[in-house]
Amino acid sequence: MTSFLFDFVCLSLLPSWRWPAVAEGLRAGDTPRELFARLADLLWHSDPGEVVSLRARAAAAVERAHASGLTPVTWSDATYPAGLAAIIDPPPVLWTRGALEALVQPSVAIVGSRAASSYALSVATTLAADLASRGIAVVSGLARGVDSAAHRGALEADGVTIAVLGSGLDVIYPPEHKPLARDIERRGIVMSELVPGTPPLQQFFPLRNRIISGLSRAIVVIEAGEKSGSLITARCALEQGRDVLAVPGNVLSGRNRGGHALLKDGAKIVESADDILEELGMGTAGSGSPVAGSSGPADPILNCLTPGESSDLDEIAERSGLTPARLLPRLMELELRGSIARVGGGRFVRIDRTC
């Protein structure tokens, strides 16, 4: 067990309301050990036993992950998804199983009702298959209904899909989706921010929705009621500067009032995968891989970066005059084009191709 990973796991076990402070400290250059010591002292100065207990839980989690064959990806790793690293409260650690290469593909989330109609299931399957066949990774939550239909649609098209759990990675929920999770691992990735062994408690699912949106360039909502958890994902997406789209549904059933509310508020209507790609400013190359419009040398974001010198999101925002919410999608586009690269710790570097 490396002490570096152990310190990140300790940070991940802090109360969720402390996660923005964790991200702020990491971006400021604090080591995980220094940051945990400071935050733990603020939380439990008069009760050091809590710190001892948390550190014991972290050690047990690392050992359990090793025994289960899980791959941890810490916030400082270059493989940590750039879009997720830049949200206000990114997970200090992602526990993963599958192909890490899936994390570098452009991705779109498809979410919706667990008690989905046959119409919603058909739409989710078709949209996911069309996106996956064009090189887009489909992100969802492995839940019953729309989520599982989206995962299966991507797999049927021999594409990549990413499942984000609201439980430990060795506690698949719902249990009947264990075979689906194994299928996803072969071409995509299954992940969780929760340490191994964590049960699927209700409070974890709204938290994981910020990860689904944080991984994605856009979120497509299919059949969401007025109190649907999908609306939490949509709200997270808007706060993170992502595009929110929705599929219209039957106005008589009441199943899609939440989705229709999104459309009334300005979400783009989705009838096909082309609508999603158009909203993202992406076309399709002859190879079937997504491409975006050209970015010439006068690109204002690239002009804020110096080849060979890394900069974090706040530094680029200050130089460009853009807010982080508006800047992040542009950085993701440039990364997908190969104009910039993420070098770990939430920092970006320009790639000079003049030679």
Care to describe what's here?
- The protein is α/β, with parallel strands linked by helices and 355 residues long.
- The chain folds into three domains: 3-97, no CATH class; 99-284, Rossmann fold, CATH 3.40.50.450; 294-350, Arc Repressor Mutant, subunit A (Orthogonal Bundle).
- The chain is 43% helix and 16% strand.
- It has a nine-stranded mixed beta sheet with strand order 1-2-6-5-4-3-7-8-9, with helices on both faces. The chain has a three-stranded antiparallel beta sheet with strand order 12-14-13. A two-stranded antiparallel sheet has the order 10-11.
- Strand 4 (137-140), helix 7 and strand 5 form a beta-alpha-beta unit.
- The chain starts with a helix and ends in a 5-residue tail after the last strand.
- Residues 284-298 have low confidence and may be disordered.
Compute the average pLDDT: 86
CATH class of the largest domain: Alpha Beta
Adjacency order of strands in the biggest sheet: 1-2-6-5-4-3-7-8-9
The outline comes out as globular
SSE run: HHHHEHEEHEHEHEHEHEHEHEEEHHEE
